[in-house]
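Notes from hallway chat w/ T.B., transcribed later so I don't forget. T.B. wanted the structure written out for a chain they're using in a teaching module, and asked if we could keep both sequence and structure tokens in one place. Agreed to drop them here.
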Amino acid sequence: MNQTSKPARITGYVLSTIATLFMLMDAGMKIVCPPFVVTASAPLGYSSIDTLRIIGSALLAFTILYIIVLWTDHSLLISKELR
């Protein structure tokens, strides 16, 4: 039986969505490499566009895996609640 209140569940969905959208935006910016991203990343030691694209690709891949696991877990929870 699910002991989580509805407001707590909605808050969790909203926070997960915000974090996921931020990670997707960050990955997209690193893959596209607009000038302000390259400039902001240079002091951190990531001045190469190739390096930024590799980081962006890895970030995108892991974010997509996170989304798949999140949806799979959520669909499994729903199916258990319906039984």
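Follow-up for T.B.: DSSP finds three helices and no strands in the chain. Might be a good example for the class.
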